[in-house]
Amino acid sequence: MIRYFFICPLSLLLSASIAVRPALADYKQAVAYYSQGDYNRAIQELKPDLDKSPDWEFGHRLLGLCYLGINNNALAVQALSRAAELNSTAFATYFGLGQAYFNMKRYNEAISAFSKAEPLAAKEKIPESERANVSIFRGTAYYRINNYSETVNNLREAVRVNSSDWTLFFMLGASYFNLNRTDEAIQTLERAGTLKSGEASVGDILGKAYLKKGVQSLSDKRYQDAVQNLLNAKTYDSKNGYINYNLAEAYLFEKRYAEAEKELTAASTLLPDNREVFTRLGLVYERQNKHEQALGAYRKAYELNPSQDLKETIDRVSANIKTKK
């Protein structure tokens, strides 16, 4: 769903670059090609010099970033790992290595590389921005391996710097949801929805989050709160019968029987094999003295899952109807 791509700017590439550099004629030409985005020609310039000087850290770093630029992640890993073996102290080495692993879906190795890049960001021209880039990629990698606590630790900081990317708020909100931090999930996902109106993935989790909050409000006997949360859930997920069912429960406890009936009728269409829906519908009909309809709902519930309690309820309602006739 989410794929980030980053090419190291020339200024960042050159920082901390050449403590020891062989006197190679083509080195500046390779840098020029890199700065122009002509990565293939830069690679061709670098290869002969690296054959002559295999311990040239900057050359391996530049080669790796060129491979990253043409999306050859395996060779990028090879070259940047060699730069790291040569004790590279450049942010670009480890950040590029992390990105190559990330693109290969080797997320644990990506996380390790990004963590090595993080302290080196302090030497860059805009440290806060580079640390935010690390947090974005590392947080996304943690999200991909379902480590939601670390996703939160990384992306909570990243969104303070990058507050316009809806995907960051989505991953952060989804992580809060999976950690049962429902209020934070709702607040963060609402922000994602503001940035990306109509995004189905955001609405899906928001619907689940409001449903969870509504059910908790029901459990706590805060019925008005339950109604509001469940109505919010319906705005994001109108086809989830469990939302209708729980909303009907809240209405039932508030003695709003007509509204409970409406929600249970909708739930019976969405959950046609759910005995509890029809049992509750029968009760709501009874509360409104709609005995014939109550009997029909109870019989449907009995067909789905017979029980002695339901049989006794059916007999009671049938007797009551006969008496009134």
Provide a quick synopsis of the model:
Among the domains are: 1-125, Tetratricopeptide repeat domain (Serine Threonine Protein Phosphatase 5, Tetratricopeptide repeat); 273-325, no CATH class. It has 18 helices and no strands.
List the helices and strands and how they pair.
Layout: H1 10-14, H2 27-35, H3 39-52, H4 57-69, H5 73-85, H6 91-103, H7 107-117, H8 127-144, H9 148-161, H10 166-178, H11 182-195, H12 200-219, H13 223-236, H14 241-253, H15 257-270, H16 275-287, H17 291-304, H18 308-324
Helix pairs in contact: 2-3, 3-4, 4-5, 4-6, 5-6, 6-7, 6-8, 7-8, 8-9, 9-10, 10-11, 11-12, 12-13, 12-14, 13-14, 14-15, 15-16, 16-17, 17-18
Give short descriptive properties of this protein:
74% helix; 0% strand; mainly alpha; rod-shaped; 18 helices
Overview of the molecule:
With 325 residues, this protein is mainly α. The relative contact order is 0.05. Among the domains are: 125 residues, Serine Threonine Protein Phosphatase 5, Tetratricopeptide repeat; 53 residues, no CATH class. The termini are far apart. Helices cover 74% and strands 0% of the residues. The radius of gyration is 30 Å and the shape is rod-shaped. About 2% of the residues have low confidence.
